[in-house]
Design brief:
Blueprint lengths: L10 E5 L3 H11 L4 E5 L27 E3 L9 H4 L2 H17 L10 H13 L3 E3 L3 E3 L5 H14 L3 E3 L4 E7 L2 E7 L4 E3 L2 E4 L6 H11 L3 E2 L3 E10 H8 L6 E5 L6 E8 L3 E7 L2 E7 L8 E10 L8 H15 L5 E4 H5 L6 H6 L10 E2 L8 H17 L9 E8 L4 E2 L12 E3 L10 H19 L1
Parallel strand pairs: 1-2, 1-10, 2-6, 10-22, 18-19
Antiparallel strand pairs: 3-5, 4-13, 7-8, 8-9, 11-21, 12-17, 12-20, 13-14, 14-17, 15-16, 18-20
Bound molecules: flavin-adenine dinucleotide.
Length: about 450
């Protein structure tokens, strides 16, 4: 029905079957609009746990599946709804749909302890963000996606998997469809770009080829902190992935905790030209340590706005200093202005969970401003979580989160090209499941507004 030359009116193509593309399809199909979802990865039944980034369900299908039911974690929905209540309504809308498809009811326990954390953070000028979270779990997530896909198909949505979109079809300055790598062309009234993080380079190419308006997003640079689990347990008890937001004294920079892995592992990540660190936890093997990312947000203006270039330069320097491996340092050594060594690490009370590292000096790799923010930030955090900045705490670097360039969109989430809409992580509009899904809903609503 979408084949070139056979276009029907009121039709939409979404590129990508992640949360953004699927929720856009949901919104449109409920309004009897024809939708074709084109996905370069496999169908959800055929995916394996090694195909993390691509396929029906999108990235993270085989992850922990932690659903953060907040509009200001993993993006900021208020930017698009222009109203805080409407942003929360959107999150509630997503929750109800996911629940119908098997997402467990979110738990919020230990309300008294949560109040206490909020109070302690507030007394330091920091914020603790209580989050209502649901854990779908990696074993259950594919079932939730299958059930959601079935509802979409029952409502007439068509899926075309194993098909990569290569280019847009532009006629008279308007997007009229897409061309796929296999040569097939599909036409529709509207197209939604929702290709997720794996699609960042492709979106970048489209911005250059079609002069799509976009801006650089801020970058998160910092370290992964590893402490004995008992230090974090009282906070983990309240929330498995506690979010603290702080502003540092010297530079007034924004620093946050992110991606906590109770009894987990620090892991090395290989990128094109540099290395980095991340963390994960496993259900089968647990360690005695807990790790979390501690990240400083930096935005650049003149003369260099390109935060990706800046982040890469820092990551490359860290990779050089670490001899191709992440650097690990004890806080005590950092404070004393000396590098960590294998023998000091052997004597350390905390044994590291990542072996493939170079004991060294993180301050040789990260900019002074970032180091200052990390040290001051950990001092503040220590007032809330006593023991977190003990001399034995391990810091691994570099941990850098690159974000997609943010496409400029209007209130309907239409880009600077008429007929082309955007949603999700690949367009730089979100960083998590709920925010990606919400921008998909907003793009769907934007298109139905336009059809009116
Ligand atoms: C390992 C991992 C764990 C995560 N854990 C969590 C978590 O616990 N909680 C949370 O909230 N978030 C988590 N995230 C983030 C979350 O998965 C993403 O924020 C979310 O999936 C973004 O949704 P999206 O629809 O924008 O993009 P995606 O989910 O990335 O989906 C985009 C889809 O588009 C397809 N695509 C790309 N380019 C093309 C093309 N040219 N043609 C056709 N198809 C294309 C891709 O194959 C992909 O399937 C995790 C991410 C990863 C990688």
């Amino acid at each position: 029905m979408f084949n070139k030359g056979m276009k029907m009116s009121n039709s939409v193509i979404t590129v990508g079957a992640g949360p953004a593309g699927m929720f856009a399809a949901y919104e449109l199909s409920k309004k009897d609009i024809d939708v074709l979802v084109i996905e370069k990865g496999k169908d959800v039944d055929d995916r394996t746990e090694f195909e993390i980034m691509s396929g029906v369900g999108g990235a993270g299908t085989y992850s922990d599946g932690t659903v953060n039911l907040r509009p200001d974690i993993g993006g900021d929905l208020k930017e698009y709804t222009h109203d805080e209540d409407k942003a929360w309504e959107l999150v509630e809308y997503i929750r109800k749909i996911l629940k119908r498809h098997g997402m467990p009811e979110p738990k919020r326990e230990n309300l008294e302890k949560e109040e206490e954390l909020k109070r302690r953070a507030a007394s330091l000028g920091a914020r603790y963000l209580p989050i209502i979270q649901s854990h779908i779990g990696s074993n259950k997530a594919p079932d939730v996606i299958k059930s959601f896909k079935k509802e979409l198909e029952d409502d007439g949505v068509k899926f075309k998997v194993n098909t990569e979109v290569e280019d847009l079809l532009i006629e008279n300055d308007r997007c009229i469809g897409v061309r796929c790598k296999n040569g097939q062309e599909f036409e529709a009234d509207f197209t939604i770009l929702a290709p997720g993080r794996v699609g960042i380079d492709w979106v970048q190419r489209l911005t250059e080829d079609y002069k799509l308006k976009a801006s650089f997003a801020p970058i998160d640079i910092g370290v992964r902190v590893e402490v004995p689990s008992i230090i974090m347990d009282p906070v983990i008890d309240v929330n498995r992935d506690p979010k603290f937001h702080l502003y540092t004294k010297s530079y007034d920079d924004f620093v946050r905790t992110f991606c906590t892995n109770p009894q987990g592992f620090v892991v090395k990540e290989d990128y094109d030209g540099f290395i980095g660190v991340n963390g994960h936890s496993r259900t089968d093997i647990q360690t005695e340590n807990t790790n979390f990312a501690f990240l400083v947000k930096l935005k650049l203006t003149e003369p260099l706005e390109d935060t990706t270039k800046y982040g890469r330069a820092i990551a490359q320097l860290a990779t050089t200093i670490g001899g191709g491996k992440p650097i690990v340092q004890r806080i005590g050594d950092l404070r004393d202005g000396r590098r960590s060594t294998h023998s000091r690490l052997r004597r350390n009370s905390i044994q590291r969970t990542l072996d493939d590292v170079t004991p060294g000096d993180i301050s040789m790799a990260l900019p002074q401003r970032v180091m200052n923010d990390i040290i001051e930030g950990l001092d503040m955090l220590n007032e809330i979580i006593p023991g977190v900045n003990s001399s034995n705490t391990l810091l691994y670097a570099p941990e850098i989160k690159f974000y997609a360039k943010k496409l400029k969109v209007d209130e309907n989430l239409e880009t600077s090209i008429s007929g082309l809409f955007a949603a999700g992580d690949g367009a730089g509009l979100s960083h998590d499941i709920v925010n990606a899904a919400s921008t998909g809903v907003l793009a769907g609503r934007g298109i139905s507004n336009r059809l009116k």
